[in-house]
Write a structure and sequence with these properties.
single chain, mainly alpha
């Protein structure tokens, strides 16, 4: 399946986990301290999509992660799932 539009989760992965600015702390700060109505709906969508990606491995594959970040650090689905869990813990745990 080839989609032209990225999901909110993919957009956030692109913005916060690319090879040049991989910073989970900045993402967690944005999630926890942003209260603008436009951002709150994006955060809610991100939370829903991240939870779904954790519950259903394969939504964010190593290939999707690499395409979003130009980072080939995670070659296995287990590595991606661990990264997504770390993201959940930092942002919502």
């Amino acid at each position: 399946m080839d989609r032209t539009e990225k999901t909110t989760l993919e957009k956030i992965i692109t913005a916060y986990f690319n090879v040049e600015s991989d910073n989970i702390d900045d993402l967690a700060t944005w999630v926890k301290h942003t209260h603008l109505p436009s951002a709150t709906s994006e955060i809610a969508e991100f939370k829903t999509q991240l939870r779904e990606a954790l519950d259903r491995p394969g939504i964010i594959t190593p290939e999707i992660y690499e395409r979003c970040t130009d980072n080939d650090e995670f070659e296995t689905q287990d590595g991606i799932q661990a990264r997504l869990q770390m993201t959940w813990d930092a942002c919502f745990g």
